[in-house]
Amino acid sequence: MLYKNILLGTDGTKLMTKIYEHCAYLALLSNATVHIVNIIDNSVYAAMPIEGTLPGYTFAPTNASWATVYDVLRDTGKKITENAKKDLMSLGVSENEIKVTVLEGHPARELLSYAETHLIDLVIIGTHGRTGIDKLLIGGVADKIIRSSKVPVLVVRS
To answer: What fold is seen in the domain 5-46+54-157?
Structure first.
């Protein structure tokens, strides 16, 4: 089967190397466009206090704001996707066949929505292989994508 549009969800960790290799291999085999997407998980920072202190703890400099936090997260997402692009190019994928995007929201929901709106025919994601209470507390992004995706999903254990 040849793929035209491959969605690569990345968190930018060092564990992604193996996932990038699989993605590059399939993209080169199919001459596909790779859509690299990083999600700013707003549930992570939604509960972060921006200003103020508790005894013994300082949350942020007094000039911090939600805009500052968002800018830092957005810049980090851009760096993650650009680094992933460089990694895929070093594996032989043409720069013209790579698109990078940073989105905000719940990772599984955003990746699934992106897949539907961009005619993705293969989703490639990694899993850390968490089990038990870790999986319940952290959530299983890969699991949610597998259960809800309308297109094939390749899950690479990192």
So the answer is: Rossmann fold (3.40.50)
